[in-house]
């Protein structure tokens, strides 16, 4: 495959040709080779690799962020547990109020839908959902797993404080 080449502009003027930043997404091997003869500054190694996410129902490649988070196409049927979704929303509102942050800081709407659709039972299943990493599992994992298992919001929230340590 021929490498696409772009010219970068800096404050000092133009630099030589460098490989396009979009190549890692197009090249399945994940290579970040530079174009031959490039005189520009060496590229820093990519920190994030874009993972190809497929719809768990039809297998189509998902490109939009919310679709990737849900793990399905917007046209594929949802198997959401509406009662669980409502409990998660109420829990998120209480936690956000206690932390004095907007609700989306705790979990986005798409993450709540993904939780209500997938119904994770273990911390490893929580981490598999986009938008939930080790930090959020540490902060909220126990409560979310209890809600998924059928606990009420009052059972999970009253004695717990969800403070974020800096």
Give, in spatial order, the strands making up the sheet with the most strands.
1-2
**Protein structure class:** alpha+beta
User: Could you say what the CATH topology of the largest domain is called?
Assistant: DNA polymerase, domain 1
Could you give the count of β-strands?
4
Order of helices and strands: EEHEEHHHHHHH
Compact summary:
The chain has eight helices and four strands.
Give the helix/strand layout:
Blueprint: E1 5-10, E2 13-19, H1 23-26, E3 53-54, E4 61-62, H2 65-70, H3 82-99, H4 103-106, H5 109-118, H6 123-127, H7 134-148, H8 153-156
Antiparallel strand pairs: 1-2, 3-4
List keywords for this structure.
DNA polymerase, domain 1; two-stranded antiparallel ribbon; 40% helix; 10% strand; 4 strands; 166 residues; alpha+beta
Could you explain how this protein is built, in words?
Helix content is 40%, strand content 10%. The protein is of the alpha+beta class and 166 residues long. The chain has 2 domains: 5-50, no CATH class; 59-166, Orthogonal Bundle (DNA polymerase, domain 1), CATH 1.10.150. The strands form 2 sheets. Strands 1-2 form a two-stranded antiparallel sheet. Strands 3-4 form a two-stranded antiparallel sheet. It is globular. The relative contact order is 0.10. Mean pLDDT is 77; it is low at 30-37.
